[in-house]
C-alpha cells in the first residue's frame, strides 16, 4: 500500500476522489421511506384517530362531535369493564410471576450442561412457538370436565375426583393463568439462559470455595447480574398481559358469564358486536396509556439513562 502511494506521488497521478459522505446513506434512506410512511399513516394515524373517536358519541358509525370525558366516565361505572380490569391485574401478577419463576428454574436446570440440552431447550420453548389460540384450544380440551383431566382421572377409578375450574366463575381466571404460564415460561427461560451463559464461571468456583450453597449462589449472586434480562422479560410479558385476547376467546370466551372478561375482548365486542365505537375506543385508549406507562420507564432506563452514563 505504501509502495503504491509513493509511486502515485512520484508520477504525479491524482488520487481517486473520495465519495461524498452525504450520498452514502441516501439509497438506504430512500428505501426506508415507504416503511416510515406506513408507520406514520397506519400506526400513528390510526392511533390518533382512535383517541379522537373516544371523545365523541359514535355508535354504529363515527361521529365528529365532542362529548369530553363522557365515555371514560361510563367506563368507570361499567361492571363489565371493571371486572375485565380486575381480571387483568390478577392474570398479570400471577402470569408474570409464574413465568419468571418457572423460566428461571428451567434456565438454571439447562445451565447445568445436562445431556440432551438441545432437546430440552426445544421442548421448553415449543409452547411459545404456538399462537395463543392453539394454546387456548388445547387447554380448553384438557381442562374440560367432560373431556380432559377430570374424565381421565375418573376413568382410572377415582370417581369422586373433581377439577371444574374451567366452568367455575371464581376459578376460571386461574385456568387462563395456568395456560399462559405454560405458553410464556419458555420465552423467559431463553432470555435468562442467555444471561446465565454470560456469567463468569470464576464466580461459581469462588462460591464453592467459600462454601456458599447453590440456591444462595443463584439468588444472591447470579440473579442480580441478570437484572437487565429480568426487566426485558417482564416488559415483554406485561405487554402480552395488556393485549390478552385470543387466549380468552379460544379457552373460555370470556365466561362463565363475564368471569374471564379482559379489556381487549371488551374493546372488540363493543366495536364489532355492540356497535358502540366511542366506548370501545375509550377502552382501547386506556389500554394504550397502560402500555405507555409500562414501556416508558424501561425505555428511559435502557436507552436514555444508559446514554447519559456514557
What does this 3D model show about the protein?
It comes from Chelatococcus caeni. Keywords: Cell membrane, Membrane, Transmembrane, Transmembrane helix, Transport. Residues 85-300 form the ABC transmembrane type-1 domain. This protein has 310 residues and is an all-alpha fold. It has a domain at 70-202 and 228-309: MetI-like (MetI-like fold, Orthogonal Bundle), CATH 1.10.3720.10. The chain has helices at residues 2-11, 21-24, 26-53, 70-76, 79-110, 117-129, 132-143, 149-155, 172-196, 201-209, 214-225, 227-242, 246-251, 263-272, 277-309. Residues 1-10 have low confidence and may be disordered.
Task: Set down the secondary structure blueprint.
Layout: H1 2-11, H2 21-24, H3 26-53, H4 70-76, H5 79-110, H6 117-129, H7 132-143, H8 149-155, H9 172-196, H10 201-209, H11 214-225, H12 227-242, H13 246-251, H14 263-272, H15 277-309
Membrane topology: Multi-pass membrane protein
Protein name: Glucose/mannose transport system permease protein
Pfam families: BPD_transp_1
| Largest sheet descriptor | none
Count of alpha/pi helices: 15
CATH class of the domain at 70-202 and 228-309: Mainly Alpha
How much helical structure, as a percent, in the residues?
Answer: over 70%
Order of secondary-structure elements: HHHHHHHHHHHHHHH
Amino acid at each position: 500500500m505504501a509502495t503504491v502511494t509513493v509511486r502515485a506521488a512520484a508520477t504525479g497521478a491524482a488520487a481517486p476522489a473520495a465519495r461524498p459522505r452525504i450520498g452514502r446513506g441516501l439509497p438506504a434512506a430512500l428505501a426506508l421511506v415507504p416503511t416510515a410512511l406506513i408507520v406514520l399513516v397506519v400506526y400513528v394515524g390510526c392511533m390518533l384517530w382512535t383517541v379522537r373517536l373516544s371523545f365523541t358519541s359514535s355508535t354504529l358509525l363515527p361521529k365528529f362531535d365532542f362529548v369530553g370525558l363522557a365515555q371514560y366516565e361510563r367506563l368507570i361505572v361499567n361492571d363489565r369493564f371493571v371486572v375485565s380490569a380486575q381480571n387483568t391485574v390478577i392474570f398479570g401478577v400471577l402470569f408474570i410471576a409464574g413465568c419468571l419463576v418457572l423460566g428461571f428454574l428451567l434456565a438454571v436446570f439447562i445451565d447445568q450442561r445436562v445431556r440432551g440440552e438441545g432437546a430440552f431447550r426445544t421442548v421448553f420453548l415449543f409452547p411459545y412457538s404456538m399462537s395463543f389460540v392453539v394454546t387456548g384450544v388445547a387447554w380448553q380440551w384438557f381442562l374440560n370436565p367432560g373431556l380432559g383431566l377430570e374424565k381421565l382421572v375418573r376413568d382410572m377409578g377415582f370417581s369422586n375426583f373433581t377439577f371444574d375450574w374451567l366452568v367455575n366463575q371464581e376459578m376460571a381466571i386461574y385456568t387462563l393463568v395456568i395456560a399462559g404460564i405454560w405458553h410464556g415460561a419458555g420465552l423467559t427461560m431463553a432470555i435468562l439462559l442467555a444471561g446465565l451463559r454470560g456469567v463468569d464461571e470464576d464466580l461459581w468456583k469462588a462460591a464453592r470455595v467459600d462454601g456458599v450453597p447453590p440456591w444462595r449462589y443463584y439468588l444472591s449472586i447470579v440473579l442480580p447480574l441478570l437484572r437487565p434480562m429480568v426487566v426485558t422479560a417482564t416488559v415483554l410479558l406485561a405487554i402480552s398481559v395488556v393485549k390478552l385476547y385470543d387466549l380468552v376467546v379460544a379457552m373460555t370466551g370470556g365466561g362463565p358469564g363475564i368471569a374471564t372478561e379482559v379489556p381487549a375482548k371488551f374493546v372488540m365486542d363493543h366495536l364489532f358486536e355492540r356497535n358502540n365505537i366511542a366506548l370501545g375506543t375509550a377502552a382501547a385508549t386506556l389500554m394504550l396509556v397502560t402500555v405507555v406507562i409500562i414501556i416508558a420507564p424501561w425505555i428511559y432506563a435502557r436507552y436514555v439513562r444508559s446514554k447519559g452514563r456514557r
